[in-house]
Model the fold of this input.
Amino acid sequence: MRTVIFDLDGTLADTSADLIAAANHCFRAMGAGDVLDPVADAATAFHGGRAMLTLGLTRLEALSDAEVNRWYPHLLDAYGDAIDVHTRLYPGAMEAVAALRDAGVRVGVCTNKPEGLAETLLTRLGVRGAFASMIGADTLPVRKPDPAPYIAAVEQAGGSVVQSCLIGDTSTDRETARAAGVPCVLVTFGPDGHAVADLEPEELLAHYDDLPALVERLLPVIAA
Done:
């Protein structure tokens, strides 16, 4: 069964502003004010909470593993409390998902966001039911770019890895797809824009309107 697995942050939805807000909550608690900018630092947000804490603490000249570990749970709590204030699905995302499902393609999510937060976000956005699988950062003992979460997402959706592809936005997704031996599609509407072309994915996606036709091109090649 053909299957398309989506990353979440920066791929299905622009979650950067709410992620940055959660990090800044921590920096304010440190007495430092808002250290991160929701626009200039959006790309870092898509690499997760620890990356944001690392960036902010570096700017404050206070970086250490102990400090990142200390504040990470506080960041997750703050993010969970306001997970969908600014977050929006990218234009055409769910229309593309619906078109894939209508064509008999299984769809799922594989994210490095903790599973509980991912479930909460997709539910609050009203789209959880559209996806046949949801694998988060803590669903398995390993996370992307290890291929195991991706494979689990495909199998949970009832699909076949050899007839699947990954839609993502970062080098983590590119490395995951390579490790799993499947094609990778990277979106160009995130903070990195067309710079993701340097990662040499099999395809680039400028708008979700183009995804159904792109999947039709990719997956028959895999099936063959």
Observations:
- The first strand starts at residue 3 and ends at 6.
- The radius of gyration is 17 Å.
